[in-house]
Structures are given as C-alpha cells and as structure tokens.
C-alpha cells in the first residue's frame, strides 16, 4: 500500500481516481472523507489533473468542504497539466503560465470544427485557460463515442496542422511530427490539445516549487495515483529527483509498465472505486 505518515505527499489525478468517468463527480463512498482526513492532518494533497481549476473549485472542493475540509489544509490544485494552479482549500487565486497557453486562433479553429462536426458526441470545455478539451457528452453512450473517437482525433490533428503547428500525438509516434509544439492526448473521456511543455511531470515539478515558495515543507515520500499511462510521469519525475514514490494505477488494463518504483493496483476495483479503496487505506494508516 505504501508507507503513510504526516511527511507523505499525495499527488493525485482527478478523472478516474477521484471523479467518476461516467458521472464526472466525486461520488465513491468514503473517498471524500479519506481525502479530508489526509489534508486536515497536514499531509500535502495535490490534484494534478488536466481539468481546469474551475472544475476543481465547482465540482470537487464543495464536496470536500461538506466533509469538513479546513481552509488552512494543504490542498493544492495543479490544473491543465501544469498550466494553472491554486491553493484549493483557501479558495486562493488561480494562476496560469502564459508560456504554456495555446494560441487563441488555434483554440477557436478547434472549437469551430467540433461544434460543426462532432457536437453530438463532445462539448467544448470553456473553463480551460491554457489548453483545449473536447469532452464526451454525458448523453453520448460510450459505444457511440468510441466508434467516432478516432475520426474526431484525426480531424483535430488536421486542424492543428492546418494552423501551422507540428503535432505530437500521445502514444502514436507514427502519427507525430518532428519538432512538435502542440500535443494531442486522447483520454478515455476527452481529446486534449495542449502545449508540449505541459504534463503530469510538469505538474509534479510545479507543486514542489509552490511548496518551497510558500514555505511548506516538501514531503519526504510520495504516493501518486492515476488512470492512464501518462499519469506515470509524475511518479517518474519524483523518482528521478530523488524522492521515494509509490504509484497507484486504477485502470491497469492499459498495461502496467516496468518501473523502478512500486506500482499498486486493485484486483477488483477500477477508477474511483479503486481510488476510494486506496485513499481509505491511507487515511486509516495515518490515524493508526
């Protein structure tokens, strides 16, 4: 499970481990209580996600407050894969890194294409500040979405290149260009378009910088959790920079890569059900 103490930091993806991919809400029994227990005890808890800060503030934090989250708890939001950040527990100001923001003309072109050709399966996430997300509509079945998903991604790639940008297609070197500055990252519920300087490793680095800049002791060990292969990047960054880290994969069906750090999975639960199980174990271990 990974050793847990007040000096353990928790760096957690949101969609999958925390928020249900089907409802996009924090709904798994016991999960909110466990996260609040960790944060209120003084453990650094950071949501390292492709989601916007607005999503975290509007959909995640209110649930945690209902379960007793204190304003001074060290709960941080690293949104848009390192493009934006805030101290979530206090409702602090949202900051963004303009160096990682995509060009407004590119964003507008992607939005127009999606609205014209794919509005029956995706919607435009207008809360994003630095990137674009075409997210599966809640009224679109998984079967319909998956059937048209590659068609959507091919059109997104066409728009990106049509605007003059070289493209990195996550996980598909055969569809990627040399010298890419824009990345297309298909997730299980969205197609994300982002600056190549973003990523879960960028989020991990940013969190450590924020803690140091705010005079918060950096944890001496870490537990990370995600639902995709790209989420391993935060654990890799921590490992490469000298911290003991254990990663939890809540959707191991994609395959668990060989890593120099422990990787945990649940034999039965996936997504936020697995996330809740692990979080409850961590909270219980801390209380003991």
Explain what the structure shows:
The chain is an alpha/beta fold and 288 residues long. The chain has two domains: 8-97 and 199-287, Rossmann fold; 99-195. The protein has seven helices and 13 strands. The chain has helices at residues 31-40, 53-66, 104-117, 142-162, 200-213, 232-240, 271-287; strands spanning 8-12, 45-48, 75-79, 84-87, 95-96, 122-124, 132-136, 167-169, 182-186, 190-195, 221-226, 245-249, 263-264. The protein has an eight-stranded mixed beta sheet with strand order 5-4-3-2-1-11-12-13. Strands 6-7-10-9-8 form a five-stranded mixed beta sheet, with helices on one face. Helix 5 (200-213) crosses helix 6. InterPro entries: HAD-like_sf. It comes from Jonesia denitrificans (strain ATCC 14870 / DSM 20603 / BCRC 15368 / CIP 55.134 / JCM 11481 / NBRC 15587 / NCTC 10816 / Prevot 55134). This is HAD-superfamily hydrolase, subfamily IIB.
CATH superfamily of the largest domain: HAD superfamily/HAD-like
Number of strands: 13
- Total number of domains: 2
Low-pLDDT sequence parts:
none
What's the level 1 CATH class of the largest domain? Answer: Alpha Beta
Please name the defining characteristics of this protein.
288 residues; alpha/beta; 2 domains; 8-stranded mixed beta sheet; 5-stranded mixed beta sheet; 7 helices; HAD-superfamily hydrolase, subfamily IIB; HAD-like_sf
């Amino acid at each position: 499970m990974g050793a847990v103490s007040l000096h353990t930091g928790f760096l957690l993806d949101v969609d999958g481990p925390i928020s249900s991919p089907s409802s996009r809400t924090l709904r798994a029994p016991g999960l909110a209580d466990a996260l609040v227990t960790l944060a209120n005890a003084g453990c650094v808890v950071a949501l390292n996600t492709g989601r916007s800060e607005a999503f975290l503030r509007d959909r995640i934090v209110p649930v945690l407050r209902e379960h007793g989250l204190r304003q001074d708890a060290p709960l941080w939001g690293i949104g848009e894969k390192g493009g934006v950040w805030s101290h979530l527990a206090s409702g602090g100001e949202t900051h963004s890194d303009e160096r990682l923001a995509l060009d407004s003309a590119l964003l507008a072109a992607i939005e127009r294409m999606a609205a014209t050709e794919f509005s029956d399966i995706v919607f435009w996430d207008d809360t994003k500040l630095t990137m674009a997300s075409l997210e599966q509509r809640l009224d679109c079945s998984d079967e319909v979405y998956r059937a048209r998903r590659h068609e959507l991604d091919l059109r997104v790639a066409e728009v990106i290149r049509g605007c003059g940008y070289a493209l990195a297609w996550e996980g598909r070197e055969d569809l990627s260009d040399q010298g890419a500055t824009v990345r297309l990252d298909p997730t299980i519920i969205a197609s994300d378009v982002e600056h190549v300087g973003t990523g879960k490793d960028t989020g991990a680095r940013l969190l450590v910088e924020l803690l140091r800049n705010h005079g918060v002791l950096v944890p001496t060990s870490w537990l990370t959790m995600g639902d995709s292969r790209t989420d391993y990047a935060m654990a890799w960054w921590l490992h490469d920079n000298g911290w003991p880290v254990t990663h939890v994969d809540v959707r191991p069906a994609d395959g668990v890569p060989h890593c120099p750090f422990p990787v945990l999975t649940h034999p039965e639960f996936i997504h936020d059900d697995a996330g809740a199980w692990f979080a409850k174990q961590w909270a219980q271990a801390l209380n003991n």
